[in-house]
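#lab-general

N.A. 3:47 PM
ok so I finally got the sequence cleaned up, no stray characters, all 224 residues accounted for. can someone with queue access submit it? mine expired

B.Y. 3:52 PM
send it over

N.A. 3:53 PM
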Amino acid sequence: MDNYLQKKLNEAVQIERLIDTAVKLIGIPSPTLSTKSVADKLAEILEEDDFRVKRPEANWPESPAVFVTYDSGQPGRTLQFDGHLDTVHLPYVEPRVEKGKLYGSGASDMKGGIAAMCEALRIIRDTGLLKSGKIILTAHDHHEAPWGDGRQVKALIEEGFVGDGVLIPEYHCESLPVLGRGMAILEVSIMREGLPVHEVQGGTGTTLSHSSRSKSHHQVYGIK
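B.Y. 4:20 PM
back already:
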């Protein structure tokens, strides 16, 4: 990215608008399988920003997904922004901002990221810097396991709500990799007694703790 383009984009970011979007989303509890209210709020925010919003059911009519397209008007590839609106089933925490940090249920995982998607979409439109192709935004339920099974994002893909490349603003992603050396996918089955749990609910009181998961990761990564 050249210095002019970077400067133009940075100047277009409205921090208060970005935070306001995040706070509005965090302000609505949305545990997995119960995201309708926050999905409606996201659609409302985008419509108020003059984006045309579609609500595909995508195999989950209880909470239709949110879909927006911004088209440059010229042919080209499509970049997708994607995020999940559901949060893990933990006690709800109201949103607040303290000393420049945003707190609340789903702030990191991943309503803050969805707010960033919205702000990026506004900036791209308002600066007119996209000269070809499209940007699409998708937001959905059914991400967090063991409550969700990923059905909605799978249905979005099957129904064609997908770009040529996708950016997922999940936390712990400060760097954007643009080049790789290939990929290998391994399936590892680990069995234990008891009901399935999300990692944030594991702790030391379950038979599959962070320590045992860490050991498993080291064993998998040690495979040559």
